[in-house]
Amino acid sequence: MALSLVAPEFLIERDDEKCIACQVCVRQCANDAHIYDAEDDTICTDSSKCVGCHRCSSLCPTGALNIKKNPLHFKENANWTSQVQTNIYKQAEAGGVLLTGMGNDRPYPIYWDHILLNASQVTNPSIDPLREPMELRTYLGRKPDSLKFKVKSLKGKRQNKNSSASSVQLLTKLAPQLQIETPILFSAMSYGSISYNACLSLARAAAEAGTFYNTGEGGLHRDFYKYGPNTIVQVASGRFGVHSEYLNAGAAVEIKVGQGAKPGIGGHLPGEKVSEGISATRMIPVGTDALSPAPHHDIYSIEDLRQLIYALKEATRYQKPISVKISAVHNVAPIASGMVRAGADIIAIDGFRGGTGAAPTVIRDNVGIPIELAIAAVDTRLREEGIRHQASVIAGGGFRSSADIIKAIALGADAVYIGTSALVAMGCHVCQKCYTGKCNWGIATQDPYLTKRLNPDIGARRLVNLLRAWSLEIKEILGGMGVNAIESLRGNREHLRGVGLSDTDLKILGIKPAGEAW
Amino acid sequence: MKSVGCCTWGMKMPAKKTKSAKIDARGLHYKELNDRIHEVIASGKRKIVLENVSGHRYIGCGVKGEMDIFVHGVPGNDLAAFMDGPRIMVEGNGEDAIGNTMNAGKIIVCGNAGDVVGYAMRGGKIYIRGDVGYRVGIHMKSYENQFPVVIVGGSAGDFLGEYMAGGLLVVLGLNGEEGVGGKKRQGTRKKVRDDRQIAGNYVGTGMHGGIIYLRGKVAEYQLGKEVSVKRLDKQDEATLRSYLEEYCQDVGFDLKEVLKKKFIKLIPTSSRPYGNIYTY
């Protein structure tokens, strides 16, 4: 084999005094970074194979392992960084498109960290969420332009002492809605990009927490049909596993046009990952590549999008909201307007930090715009056009905490999609090697030896815990603001202030600088 | 070419005792028409005749089960999208996206059809008597005993069978009433529409499964990089013949005439055309 110039990213340190050669690390590492030498009864390490996922060090019974950033130092250079050089070495050796997993890891500004929340002091009392009810329930879907009621007088009729003298009947027919108990949904991750157990964990957690998970573009495994009331089924360009029964199995249907990590490009699930289970779910033969074309070839315009939205409404007999998911790109606001006018009941916007199972690094790191700006731009545009109520907005793309979520809602989102943080809750260490199929945490892999490492009972519990924890925090923050319902916060940008932002940033975000009063 | 002018069910007609229903689509919005179709299906009728159809979209969309739907007129876009089982006969032209992501069933169109026929289709048959537009058979795929078949009597536009992953796509190039691939019409010196190509450009781009049979030739430049032209072997001929027998019966072409001209076969050069473009 030719000499590789790619330096190891990590350095595995083994404390020989602590190591008992039990080989746990050897068994745990799917990348073969630990090798047992039977002749010498010792364990050797190959740091070049290490991806920094911490599986071995987490499971080492004697704490003999430590993973360090490789101290091998490249000549200091702000332009030709070690990563830039390493990428060139890799491409010079293999001649292909660099792949990566998870979301954009480049140091672009994170606007969440430049936005601060308000709280009540003196002039308006804060609310104690431990004492007062706090409403996080949200309904996603098209809201009517107006409501019509019929008021029936009950005079002369026998009535309960406490009832009013009339009854009110809603005449307006409401469009189908998704009811969520907390404004957090699990974003689309297909069975194929993640394991059966990871999907099962998400489905169970969604059911328990009163929210939704999303099938992604991979069809719906027969075992998961029972979680239908908490499932959003996705329709993407490859239409894998999409049929009438599938469309009707979920509570809503989502047309995936784009995803934040790879706007504008298709997806290639390599044949190695198409196991029996995935074959049956995607409805393609075992071992064949699942190629998703870059566009939907039946959507070349907003009019075509409308055609597909209504095809899905027809196929589900107008019983389910139809969502359309796009990546946040430069024209996100006018596109969102078109989506709403095309009949989307929910529009999902995925920011450029959104994750992926596999994407070309150059696309992930350079295409799209931050979700913070996209939410503000879309909300503003839809309000200006008087159509904001016609669709709910779900924002996605790198939500790390309840603070990010509450800021997103104050900027104008109805709810958020979380993907990466859900995976982290299940044990992911964001090593960004999802595309290799060798996830040592049993999440982004189809290898039965690895997938059994994720116990769906534990996975679901950890996800439910995360949702509970974030919901409690959101209630605390809301209470501090003197707001008792998440709905009252939506698009209420007076609750936000910017620090360290330019006038242009503030203008697009539609928020005042910190220090400026109402 | 002998032509009977209109199509017949090559398949067995539903028994007379099958409960049938007739719906006049005149003046109805597509939603009203489709609501009525669903009501009729729910009432147990298995033969539905639609009269005066004029651009009504989504007929048969998402419909599951065995039944026959006769469409008199021109159905609108997304005819039989996500359809799973029914047979639809269109006595007229069709529009765009016929059989979009169809899972099972059969569609016969006696006239021409528009763009995006059989997109991402997984099972069933679509038989078009006339021409089709662009992007036909994109991403057709087969799975286990589901095997999608699209047969086009006339010619096809660009991007035929792009990204095709499975199934069978046949284009016959029978353009015009009597002309068959440029045969001289009797009594005249004029060739009949032999200048028309059987398919447009980018045939089979990104194709990684399935088979395309073309009755006639295409130039090298018309083909995607991922396909190669082969001769039909015995197995191919038998397969093609069995489908064409049914097709000719359905749309009223003479099988012998159709088989007189030589077919070519297009198959993907690799099942993994994009397997080696990445660095890990």
Structural notes for this entry:
The complex is a heterodimer of chains A (518) and B (280). Chain A has 518 residues and is of the alpha/beta class. Chain A is built from 16 helices and 23 strands. In chain A, strands 11-21-20-18-17-14-13-12 form an 8-stranded parallel sheet. In chain A, helix 16 links the parallel strand 22 and strand 23. In chain A, helix 4 packs across helix 14 and helix 8 packs across helix 10. The longest helix of chain A is centred in the C-terminal third of the chain and has 26 residues. Chain B is an alpha/beta fold and 280 residues long. Chain B has 2 domains: 92 residues; 141 residues, Glutamate synthase, alpha subunit, C-terminal domain (Pectate Lyase C-like), CATH 2.160.20.60. Chain B is built from 3 helices and 12 strands, in the order βαβββββββββααββ. An 11-stranded mixed sheet of chain B has the order 1-2-3-4-5-6-7-8-9-11-10, with helices on both faces. In chain B, helix 1 links the parallel strand 1 and strand 2. The longest helix of chain B has 18 residues. The N terminus of chain B is likely disordered. The chains are: A alpha/beta (518), B alpha/beta (280). At the A-B interface, helix 3, strand 5, helix 5 and helix 7 of A face helix 1 and strand 12 of B.
